[in-house]
Amino acid sequence: MNSTSSKLPYIGVDIGGSHITAAHVDATTYKVIDSTMKRERVASMDSAEVIIESWLKVLSSLIIRTNGENSKIGIAMPGPFDYEHGISLMKGMQKYDALYNINVKEILAKRLEIPEEDIVFINDAEAFLRGELASGAAADKERAIGVTLGTGLGSTSNASGITVDMNWAFRPFKESIAEEYISTRWFMKRYKEITGAEVKNVEEMLATATASVKDEIFEEFSDNLSIFLNDLIAQEQPQVVVIGGNIAKTWKHFIDALTHKISDKSVAIRQSEMWEDAALVGAASAWA
């Protein structure tokens, strides 16, 4: 994909627990310019300098400077994080402990030799929905919910007029919290309860489970997800729900049952169109 804008492209960045992904995002179309995509593994439990260096290796290769201007950077970052000031608040989460209370924005700006105001941070779950709204599965709607299904459970909404992290993963649900019933670890736990065997992830479960076991587990999963979504839909009144994350790639195993169990039939239930690109576009769209 080629850039079609005369404006400098934004740099969209997705920082996860073990990686950094970044690319130029066209400032007019809000599409990722695929040829610029950079990925780097990050030793997130190493020293602050090692972490920052791995980020800089990617970011410095994407900075464009012309006519006294430079590329502006939007970074999707997991929390807890002071997004306004660029200060990491992650501690005891098996990632980025060495950055606790460090002003990451200040360090990156200094090392990249760009103004601090040219770097913005946004919550990673919010970035997913922003991306899908900008040029993905929710681009034709005004009110949307974004749900990411994977090792954790992400939930965002723009029903209030701005895209916000709903943080419903920790909402009371059955005998625990929602994330315990709507995430990879629920699949692993349920598979072991039924078969006595262990699997590392949903992909391995799909490769090894019998058809009847898969049907049983995904039927229960659709129950759990529908209860969660029906409550969220009732509160937020969206036109569309966009579902992303690794578990969403098993779409064919649960979408028919899920759609049947959604109470408000006027709400479209859609699979992510952008996948990993959503966070990059969403982060860049913070400059819109």
TrEMBL record:
Keywords assigned: Kinase, Transferase
Gene Ontology terms, MF aspect: kinase activity
Domain of life: Bacteria
The keyword Transferase is annotated on this UniProt entry: yes
One Pfam family from the record: ROK
Similarity field: Belongs to the ROK (NagC/XylR) family.
Name used for this protein in its record: Glucokinase
UniProt lineage: Bacteria, Pseudomonadati, Bacteroidota, Sphingobacteriia, Sphingobacteriales
